[in-house]
Amino acid sequence: MYLTWLDSNSWLLEIGGKRILIDPWLVGSLTFGNLDWFFKGSRPQERPIPENIDLILLSQGLEDHAHPPTLNQLDRNIPVVASPNAAKVVQQLNYTQVTTLAHGETFTLNQSVEIKATPGSLVGLNLVENGYLLKELESGFTLYYEPHGNHSPTLKEITSVDVVITPLIDAALPLVGSIIRGNKYALEVAQWLQPQVMLSTAAGGDVIFEGLLNSLLQIKGSIEEFRSLLEKNNLATQVIEPKPGDRFEVKLSKRALNV
User: Fold this and answer.
1) Which letter does DSSP use for residue 43 in this model?
2) Is 97:79 a contact under the CB 8 Å cutoff?
3) Contact 113, 135 (CB under 8 A)
4) CA–CA gap between residue 180 and residue 157 (Å, rounded)
5) Residue 202 pLDDT exceeds 80
6) Per-residue pLDDT tens for 16-60?
């Protein structure tokens, strides 16, 4: 298994011989509803579009997960697996192979990787987006991805997850509370799943954030504090801090049972 973090929530996952692009924002700026004054993310230079993508995986329909300028740059014939809200975005962009996954539904990519949708982030009023379990069928190695730190209690039923990508640090707004839930929420999912490796997502990387929303955000915790939390709770999970753009191998040990 190989991972490349592409800033923010964007990842390139190489698993089962397949290349899966997750929540890509690679070109242009990131705004919500073109309201630069409210929130704007930019980077010193754009990320190159990865080649030979087998699947695009979208967890949410918001711009920081289904980024229209990036999706406009990608081949419309690449298969897409998406939450119902994100599926609408790519369908409007005329993608030709879109599979919508509701919670609990699965999709198998070329008999190599099984993708299962889990309940994810609450976005807006009563809209729960997707998290995902991605299982390499040959080895049984499984990765769990949820970009806001909203972890469904149904995950307690999963007996083996090897890699978790989720926020490890909180980002909160006054009077609202945590909108990116790391820290104790990440510890909770680590206790449920007992992963070999955890990686933080939703962090800035090389990105520069501006606007009213960014000025109000309060960042709580650190990666080192989270490592201490794991140690205090007798969890042997390794925390990896990747550099944006660097491809690295996630070295995993075969467990006695992978389900």
Assistant:
1) -
2) yes
3) yes
4) 24
5) no
6) 999 999 999 998 776 777 767 766 777 877 788 999 999 999 999
